[in-house]
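Figure 6 in text form: structure in, sequence out.
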């Protein structure tokens, strides 16, 4: 009798979980099907996995409390001039008219808008990123803010860690956010050394145990890469802190000076305070007047995205950019598992005659992501999208450049995790010279690529096709 009751309860629990999945506000049918398959075939594991990593934070108002609290703190510690710089829309008129609606769309994330008067260095060498960052950190006089998905223990990482500790001992305010799960192999002692030197270290998610918090810690990760020095210099892009990025991989990062640094600062402060960090006093000195740049400066919009926001704004921005491209759109991404709206936009762009090219690594750094990437090749090739695999060093860049005007450089990959689950940040640059530079970088990288031809791809072994088909089912969960 007891076993029958347990069995009925278990069946009802599975049915209930499937109903929760089906009625989720998420419109991603592929992800729903993947979860239903897992829950049905592996009931115990599937139920536990869904409760831990499958819950959709966009359907709950719990995390909105953090935003409301931060807005109250921020408004009380800043001036009207600072808020106008971050949230005003006067600069949007300087963008080419056909791109102004994109800027308005992107401002719906946290409200940050387009800034002018920016200088940008596009960094494609990890060694250059390391040297420039070390120099800027050494020159810091007031504060250093850093937020990174990976902060390793290798040679380059330790040099940066030691410099952060040195600057903290000198009296510079150093605040540091580390992602919790991604750095789980780093012992607390590593961070305690930093704390003893005066560095204010916080985990991205606090450890209070409940189901939603556990889900957030395991699934919704802080994938951003941000450094801000004295409110005047900012870094963001694809490079984490580690020797893979400094010495081995091909990646793209930005060094920014000008008004866009304020938007990076705003994003960092939200992450720091919502993760339990404390900042006393006003925020005014964190938003100094920007130094005028030589020439007209670049128009830049910093766009953070969060899984608990109502709208997946970076995903929407990528779809818009592809849909509105007319001549070309060139994409670099290490992981290509696009949600259905983005995949449809890419195919539609190619079918209407846009030159759509996607560059990925020949071999992924993940056993699972390699077949997942390749599982999308056939439908891309059928639509006329050109696929390139980069040989040699692993390419970790996350970039889009289109029509000699729009450039997107940031932390977000073209996969479900970045576009729906992670905390990401991208820079949208509305500028012809920057777009031409990014276009030339893409074309230069083609020299170390092999193009995937339709006939070649169809001739691959059957077992690879089967493995790719299987991984395609689970792609929304990777």
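Output sequence:
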């Amino acid at each position: 009798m007891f076993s029958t009751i347990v069995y009925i309860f278990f069946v009802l629990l599975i049915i209930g979980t499937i109903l929760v999945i089906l009625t989720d506000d998420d419109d991603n049918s592929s992800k729903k099907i993947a979860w239903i398959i897992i829950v049905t075939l592996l009931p115990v594991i599937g139920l536990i996995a869904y409760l831990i990593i499958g819950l959709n934070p966009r359907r709950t108002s719990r995390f909105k409390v953090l935003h409301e609290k931060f807005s109250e703190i921020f408004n009380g510690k800043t001036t009207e001039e600072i808020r106008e710089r971050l949230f005003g829309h006067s600069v949007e008129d300087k963008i080419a008219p056909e791109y102004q609606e994109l800027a308005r769309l992107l401002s719906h994330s946290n409200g940050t808008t387009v800034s002018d008067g920016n200088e940008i260095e596009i960094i494609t060498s990890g060694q250059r990123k390391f040297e420039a960052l070390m120099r800027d950190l050494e020159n810091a006089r007031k504060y250093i803010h850093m937020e990174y998905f990976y902060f390793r223990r290798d040679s380059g990482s330790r040099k940066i860690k030691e410099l952060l500790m040195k600057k903290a001992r000198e009296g510079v305010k150093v605040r540091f956010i580390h992602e919790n799960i991604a750095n789980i192999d780093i012992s607390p002692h590593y961070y305690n050394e930093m704390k003893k030197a005066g560095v204010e270290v916080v985990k991205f998610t606090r450890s209070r145990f409940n189901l939603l918090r556990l889900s957030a810690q395991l699934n919704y990760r802080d994938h951003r890469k941000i450094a801000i020095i004295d409110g005047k210099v900012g870094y963001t892009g694809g490079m984490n802190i580690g020797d893979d990025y400094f010495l081995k991989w091909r990646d793209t990062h930005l060094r920014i000076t000008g008004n866009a640094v304020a938007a990076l600062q705003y994003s960092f402060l939200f992450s720091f305070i919502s993760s339990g960090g404390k900042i006393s006093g006003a925020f005014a000195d964190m938003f100094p007047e920007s130094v005028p740049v030589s020439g007209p400066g670049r128009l830049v919009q910093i766009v953070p995205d969060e899984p608990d926001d109502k709208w997946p704004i970076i995903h929407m921005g990528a779809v818009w950019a592809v849909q509105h491209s007319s001549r070309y759109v060139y994409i670099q991404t290490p992981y290509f598992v696009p949600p259905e709206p983005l995949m449809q936009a890419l195919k539609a762009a190619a079918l209407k005659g846009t030159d759509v090219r996607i560059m990925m690594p020949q071999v992924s750094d993940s056993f699972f992501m390699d077949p997942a990437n390749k599982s999308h090749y056939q439908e891309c090739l059928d639509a006329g999208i050109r696929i390139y695999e980069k040989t040699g060093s692993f390419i970790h860049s996350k970039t889009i450049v289109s029509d000699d005007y729009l450039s997107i450089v940031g932390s977000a990959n073209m996969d479900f995790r970045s576009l729906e689950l992670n905390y990401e940040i991208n820079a949208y640059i509305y500028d012809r010279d920057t777009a031409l530079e990014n276009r030339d970088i893409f074309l230069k990288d083609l020299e170390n690529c092999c193009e995937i031809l339709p006939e070649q791809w169809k001739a691959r072994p059957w077992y690879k096709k089967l493995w790719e088909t299987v991984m395609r089912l689970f792609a929304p969960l990777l």
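Caption detail: The radius of gyration is 23 Å.
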